Amino acid sequence: MKEKILIVEDEFIVANDLKLMLKKAGYQVTGIASSVVQARKSIQEKRPDWVLIDIILKGDLTGIDLAWELRKINLPFLYISANTNQSVLEAVKETQPYGFMVKPFRERDLIVMLDIAKYRFDIEKGTAVSEAFHTQEIEGIIGESEVLRDVIEKIKVVAPTDTSVLVVGESGTGKEKIAHAVHDLSERNLNPIVIVNCAALPHSLIESELFGHEKGSFTGANTQRIGKFEQANGGTIFLDEIGELPLDSQVKLLRVLQEKEIERLGGNKTLKVNVRIVAATNRSLEKEVAEGRFRLDLYYRLNVFPIELPPLRERKEDIELLANFFLKKYASASKRNIHSISRKGMEQLLGYHWPGNIRELEHLIERSVLLTKTSEIESFDLPKTVEQQSDIPSGILKSMEEMEREHIMNALETSFGKVSGPGGAAELLKMQPQTLYSKMKKLGIDKGYR
Fold it and tell me: Among the residues of 336-446, which ranges form H helices?
């Protein structure tokens, strides 16, 4: 007999359907509670192994309130809810659930979610590492803040396994660094890690890029092409900006995750691949699922072990370490005798909001090293739109999307509207032109820029 599960749901029909699904799958249902008060009583009396929670319940307390109580007693839980409001989803994430399923759902979705949740729980519960391993540094990840230490601990827990990892964070927070760390600390580290920027893949060539093609499979296919998954066989594939994949490509990716096999475009032979997937996104995939832009079953397969990267503004105690690291790196690379940042300069860095996160800090230090004529960087030329934030009345701060749009517009103005090529905005922002075009489209920036 499988684990005992308590259902906390105030809609009787939904709760009863859940009960029937769980029993059919071999789980024991200890009861149905329609409020937090009833759930507390049932937990004390029946001692369930897992709790399925709706967010909106009868009474004054919500499922999120119950989730915080469950965390205190180390009782694992998952959410089942139709509420996909962004503020609610952020509150849900803070409770660190083992899964989130959007109503309505299929029986198969429920069972897959539970299997993945149990797998995650077993990894966290059953992995013991020594104190020496806990304090071991990871190359390329710099900082001593508590939120960063939590990320490092998660990397060390999941890296030795073959579990899929989903890295979530704003642009510029270092998601690719995390992918490399997961790969380097795994048994796959002697094999390749292949990086794929999903946002930069032309829609018509996604299948060919990922899975390869045979000679003559389409016009222009003059030779056989080995796709990214074959290139990564035995190693790791990092799918950056996974939320940018169109739905038809998501179906094909799901098959790779489920069956561990691919077919080259135009081929008639199935090829087995042994690849560990690390995906990354700066979007809320739960919200993307709710709005029909991302497949629920693919989300379950990718979100086995999520790692959320904090933005730089939430780990300001790391800014000085990062700034000095980049200073040393670029001073050495450019052979400039610059060895410090003034107190005024450091205060500027600490007071800035960092919409571009670590990437923005790195580019700022690189530019400043090239422009500074003394042995110390005395001050920084920070964007005025952000420096003036302290003068903006509380309650009307710009959103991250608005700030990113302004940042791109500033780069376009500096490059006189040129996007790609030498001196173009893409070069200034240190990103691929295809990625910049994708962001411009998403943010509604005039396509007349070239």
Answer: 343-351, 357-371, 384-387, 400-414, 425-428, 433-443
Helix (H, G, I), strand (E, B) or coil at 129: coil
> In one letter, which amino acid is 210?
L
Q: May I ask the CATH class of domain 4-105?
A: alpha beta
Domain 313-443 in the same topology as domain 4-105: no
Per DSSP, what are the bridge partners of residue 261?
A: 272
In order of 245, 303, 411, the CA distances from 306 in angstroms are 19, 6, 33
Residue 222 CB-half CA count within 13 A: 1
E strand or H helix that includes residue 5: strand 4-8
Fold topology of 127-310: Rossmann fold (3.40.50)
DSSP letters for 12-62: HHHHHHHHHHHHHTT-EEEEEESBHHHHHHHHHHH--SEEEE-SS-BSS--
Question: How far is 397 from 234, CA to CA, in rounded Å?
Answer: 47
Q: What sign does the CA torsion over 361, 366, 368, 374 have?
A: positive
Comparing C-alpha atoms, which of 370, 357, 358 is closest to residue 330?
A: 370
Q: Which residue has the higher pLDDT, 128 or 278?
A: 278
Q: Give the Cβ contact number of residue 197 at 10 Å.
A: 18
Distance separating alpha carbons of residues 178 and 194, to the nearest angstrom: 14
Letter string b/e over residues 340-369, b meaning 16 or more CB atoms within 10 A of that residue's CB = ebeeebbebbeebbbbbbbbbbbbbbbebb
Percent residues over pLDDT 70 in the chain: 92
**Beta 261-263 vs 270-272: how paired, if at all?**
antiparallel
CATH of the domain spanning 313-443: 1.10.8.60
Backbone angles phi, psi at 19, to 5 degrees: -60, -45
Q: Which structure tokens are listed for 426?
A: 């893409």
Contacts of 139 (CB under 8 A, 6+ apart): 181, 184
For 38-72, how does the pLDDT look when each residue is reduced to its tens digit (9 = 90+)?
Answer: 999 999 999 999 999 999 999 999 999 999 999 99
- Residue-wise pLDDT for 69-111, tens only, equals 999 999 999 999 887 777 787 788 889 898 888 787 778 778 8
Task: For residue 243, give both structure tokens.
Answer: 């939320």
Name the strands in the sheet holding 236-240, side by side, starting at the edge strand that comes first in the sequence.
Answer: 193-197, 236-240, 276-281, 165-168, 305-308
Looking only at Cα atoms, what is the longest distance across the chain?
73
**8 Å CB contact between 271 and 311:** no
Length of the chain counted residue by residue:
450
Segments making up each domain of the chain, as ranges:
4-105, 127-310, 313-443
Question: What string of DSSP letters covers 290-301?
Answer: HTTSS-HHHHHH
